[in-house]
Amino acid sequence: MKKVIITGSNSGFARSPLRTVNEKACLNYHNNNNGTKEKQMKNVIITGTSSGFGLKAAKDFADKGYKVFATMRKPDGKNAQKKAELEGHSARHIKVVDMDVTNDISVREAIGGIIAEVGAINILINNAGIMYLGITEAFSIAQAHEQMEANYYGAIRTMQAVLPSMRKAGNGLIINTTSLVGRISPPFFSTYTASKHALEGYAQGLRYEVSPFGVDIVMVEPGPFGTGLLASGKAPAHSEVLATYGDLSGVPAAMGESFAQMLQSEGAPDPQLVVDAYLALAEMPAGKRPTRTVVGITWGVDEMNTLTQSIQDRILKEMQLENVLGGVSC
């Protein structure tokens, strides 16, 4: 049950048929780093650090010597205790930053301020997110928007905020925390899975586009973990719809309770596995990182990734893009 599976390494995006047209430009990206890329990989932004994977990741990256900018909402309000916990863990290596990924201005000002302070962001870990479980039809459009804002548009905001400086520097790593359900679609999670499918699709295409600039974009796909994400979700807004589903309306709650018990039991997947996957990706050489890393219970997603990767690569060949976009040989 406890395992990390990496797919798409030497036969997928990480060894895609894509190559840059201008090899001289490619060489310049390396020369601009003056052989110090690994030393520069020290500044990391982690979103959603008030709980779960983000909280653990902020501490572990700090312990490894990274300068961590741990973002969360209301660090001087409802999350003041979490701010104190993180800065108490390592005042030298952790700085808590007020940022709401669902707000354009908040993201722009927070990340702009970080870049102004340290000059370059080497790693962005998109971890902030919310999950709603319930009868899909009973969720309101507003609730669907909430899922997309936090899980999809929020990640786009942060990526767009860091990419200009990463491309200019000729290096960078963006880790998007998606989910197994970003690849499959179980019932009762539809608003959540839609947001994760969207992020997977966006990140997969963007990975190709920024690779000529020396920037890696990858996805970590956790299975179920006991992080409290499910418990923090909202119930469907349309109770009148629930009433028409009869006994089926109670299934999502029962499922949630079953998951909670399973994830609290002995032998349940340890959230540390996801943080370890983040760290492993951060320490890998640029251009060698796999597109997707499945962590914990796999539900066959690792097999799906292996199958679809070859199809994805073939499509790009058929689109005649192999000589336009960059690959890891750059």
UniProtKB/TrEMBL annotation:
The record's section on PROSITE patterns has: ADH_SHORT (PS00061)
Query: Can the keyword Nucleotide-binding be found in this entry's annotation?
Result: no
Sorted alphabetically, the keyword list is:
Oxidoreductase
From what superkingdom does this record's organism come? Answer: Bacteria
Oxidoreductase listed as a keyword: yes
Pfam families noted in UniProt? adh_short
- Which InterPro entries did the record assign? NAD(P)-bd_dom_sf, Sc_DH/Rdtase_CS, SDR_fam, SDR_oxidoreductase
Can you tell me which family this protein belongs to? Belongs to the short-chain dehydrogenases/reductases (SDR) family.
Name under which the protein is recorded:
Dehydrogenase protein
Instruction: Tell me which species this is from.
Output: Candidatus Magnetoglobus multicellularis str. Araruama
